[in-house]
Amino acid sequence: MTAKKKQILLNAFNMNCVGHINHGLWAHPRDQSHRYKTLDYWTSLAATLERGLFDGIFLADILGVYDVYQGSVDLTLRESIQLPVNDPLLLVSAMAAVTQHLGFGVTVNASADAPYIFARRISTLDHLTSGRIGWNIVTGYLDSAARGLGLESQIEHDGRYDRADDYLDLLYKLWEGSWEDDAVLIDREKRIYADPSKVHAIDHRGPFYRSRAYHLAEPSLQRTPVLYQAGTSGRGKQFAARHAECIFIAAPDKSAARAASRSLREAVVAAGRKPEDIKIFLGITVITDRSATAAREKHAEYLRYANPEAGLAHFSASTGIDFSRYDLDETITYGKSNASQSATQIAQQRGWTKRQLLQELAMGGRYPVIVGDAAAVADELSSWMDEGEIDGFNLTRTVVPESFEDFIDIVVPVLQERGLYKTGYEQGSLRRKLFGEGDRLPDHHIGSSFRR
């Protein structure tokens, strides 16, 4: 009996700004990313993604600016390298109103928002989306963000994760433990909306956060949002093994993806969970058309607008290294930094020079680029799934909205014919759709231990 093929999970990778990953393409005459300030831009995109049966839209965010490269924000502003950038959470209600199934993975910095307030905000969105909200947990890595928040510099790398562990414990108490499942009665005759005996104040006294409070929102479908996390540094992996359900990785080739995937699943098992308790997503760029020749021509066209130096400025901020100070073939010192350690791992292992980095960033971003017709793209995505041992992709945008429309109209039907992609949505919450089980955190997840 032939084993059933593993179906691809798919997020649209986006950000509430002009330039996200593939920098420079905002200048392309067909690109509409400058319309990010309008609701119609986002509601139209959400409807398009749901037509393509995407599992979700994954919204990145930062709270600072990229000022490491050349010690300024000049290039950042000229090329709109994630600046200006607007709040991602405020997009969700509008996109949810025009969709029924699309999930929303929203990035919020755990170092910046008070957990008591953040808990209500996420519960509100889980209610308004009927259980389609996910949270991408980040701890920040930009000194510019820390300064904006009133600090002299960013908190030390591992210390940020120590704080985030405490932050999550407090959130679990609010989301999972404050209200019992049957607390809300809505009994008009007895005039009891909620049973006071089943609503409890939490008392959290952790190493970094303290709170004595009732959760302000009644229980939502998922209670705790689907928990996303990116980062494969030693401490980041430890954090992911304890909390994450969906993990976003970056890898230049399939062997690197496989090594990262195996390492993450081993860490999850060591934390007392099952390897299938996480879904691993790889960042990838796809440029496709009706023929291989047309796809290559489109790729060449895009390259004329892409800006590798802008991608290098983005990478400078991620690593804390000002690459403008290096000659093209000079050896770069990749030391341990207080920025994003996972961002430097591959570059350090391969000893990439500035010239090699610029070649890697030809499309303005550092994720693998697949160019071809539908069959070639489907072959390559399937190969990444098998050889990289991943569960799906965060599909980056190039020219908006055509890159997503091309994928949906050209690639999705072929993936469906091969049994690699769903032909319809399952019912239920985002968690149920992704994992095929319940709406709530599974019983062996650390968050479930805070239930009453």
TrEMBL record:
Keywords of the record: Flavoprotein, FMN, Monooxygenase, Oxidoreductase
Superkingdom field: Bacteria
Gene3D superfamilies: Luciferase-like domain
Species name: Rhizobium hainanense
Domain Luciferase-like: 29-383
Family: Belongs to the NtaA/SnaA/DszA monooxygenase family.
Residues annotated as binding FMN: 61, 107, 157, 161, 233
Keyword Nucleotide-binding: no
Descriptive protein name: FMN-dependent oxidoreductase, nitrilotriacetate monooxygenase family
GO molecular function: monooxygenase activity; oxidoreductase activity, acting on paired donors, with incorporation or reduction of molecular oxygen
